[in-house]
Write a structure and sequence with these properties.
Blueprint: E1 2-7, E2 11-17, H1 23-26, E3 35-41, H2 45-55, E4 60-66, H3 75-87, E5 95-100, H4 102-114, E6 120-125, H5 128-134, E7 142-144, E8 147-151, E9 159-163, H6 172-185, H7 194-199, H8 202-219, H9 234-243, H10 250-267, H11 273-284, H12 296-303, E10 309-310, E11 313-319, E12 325-331, H13 332-338
Parallel strand pairs: 2-9, 3-4, 3-5, 5-6, 6-9
Antiparallel strand pairs: 1-2, 7-8, 10-11, 11-12
Length: 339
């Protein structure tokens, strides 16, 4: 077991373990009210819902099972969830547990952050992507028709519990999706290397990724500066995800977005040809097809709904040299010209 402390607007501990054995000692004491709601989805429920319910000794446990898929992270299901919390009798001292991947984490945390103006929230991520990204840092949200995560809050969890053994039940494509976010960290901090990433030593790379994100969140919780670096590949990646109607996973779209970002970085003079080819080779080790079937006009049009957009420009994260990043405001017309 490894524990990582996060000192943000709310202090909490990330527990990284191989199993659920330490859940009772690390998480259960934080649940002081008798009522607990577990939000999960139709993929995860058959695998882990009963196990987590068994761990909640002496609690009244209510379960809400969301249909799996990004397309279900919407306002309609959010309203259903908060109504479920109210109908189940949860109060301001009650706890919500998000059990699942990024979709479950985002919508369950958003529900907890807004129900009765905020109740306890514990994240139990079960995918590689959610373990290294969305479960930590306090970003919550749901998608609107115009774009991804346009309605949300900053709301730190009360605890994060990661059972690395849950990765054994993930399909290969989901593992590749998670690698997209992990590969991003090699551009942000030298503590995680390309060798670490390629080793597939998941205990090591999950812990290193979490410590890097923890440090950035502590310095820039509300994303006014440095935390924007975590958006590398995301501006274009979210646009691609939207164009796919969310039928292709977030991590795959981020990898595709990073591929575009590297090429744009070359066009804008931030990365030379040799470094660009090296980085693209690195991204290709993910096993994800980096090509997309959309025109550059479609991609740029979809980018205009990005949260980082401002008028005719967007704060874009470029690669700067080999495995370094820089944030620059760039016009959409310039991106279109060089994409």
């Amino acid at each position: 077991m490894e524990q990582i402390k996060v000192n943000a607007s709310k202090n909490y501990i990330i527990t990284l373990d191989s199993g659920f054995e330490s859940f009772k000692t690390q998480v259960l004491p934080l649940i002081t009210d008798n009522n607990v709601a577990i939000i999960t989805d139709s993929n995860v429920a058959p695998l882990y819902l009963d196990k987590v319910k068994e761990l909640l000794v002496g609690k009244r446990v209510f379960s809400y099972i969301l249909p799996a898929g990004e397309e279900n992270k919407n306002a309609e299901n959010y309203i259903k969830i908060v109504n479920f919390l109210a109908e189940s009798g949860l109060n301001r001292k009650s706890t919500v547990i998000g059990l699942g991947g990024g979709v479950v984490g985002d919508i369950s945390a958003f529900s907890a952050s807004t129900f009765m103006r905020g109740i306890k929230y514990i994240a139990v991520p079960t995918t590689l992507l959610s373990m290294v990204d969305s479960s930590v840092g306090g970003k919550t949200g749901i998608d609107l028709d115009c774009g991804k995560n346009l309605l949300g809050t900053f709301f730190q969890p009360d605890a994060v519990y990661i059972n690395v053994e849950t990765l054994k039940t993930l399909p290969e494509r989901e593992m590749k999706s998670g690698m997209g976010e992990i590969m991003k960290y090699a551009f942000i901090d030298p503590r995680i290397t390309t060798s670490d990433v390629l080793s597939k030593n998941f205990n090591l790379i999950i812990a290193k990724s979490l410590k890097i994100k923890r440090d950035i969140v502590e310095r820039d919780e509300k994303e006014s500066g440095e935390r924007m670096l975590l958006n590398f590949g995301h501006t274009i990646g979210h646009a691609i995800e939207k164009l796919y109607n969310y039928k292709v996973s977030h991590g795959e779209c981020v990898l595709k977005g990073m591929n575009y970002a590297i090429k744009l970085s070359n066009k804008f003079g931030y990365v030379n040809d040799v470094d660009m080819e090296f980085i693209i080779d690195y991204l290709n080790t993910s096993g994800v097809d980096l090509s997309v079937p959309f025109s550059k006009e479609e991609i740029v049009s979809a980018m205009k709904s990005d949260k980082k957009a401002s008028g005719d420009s967007v704060n874009f994260v470029f690669a700067s040299g080999l495995f370094k990043l820089v944030i620059r405001k760039v016009k959409f017309s310039e991106i279109l010209e060089n994409l």
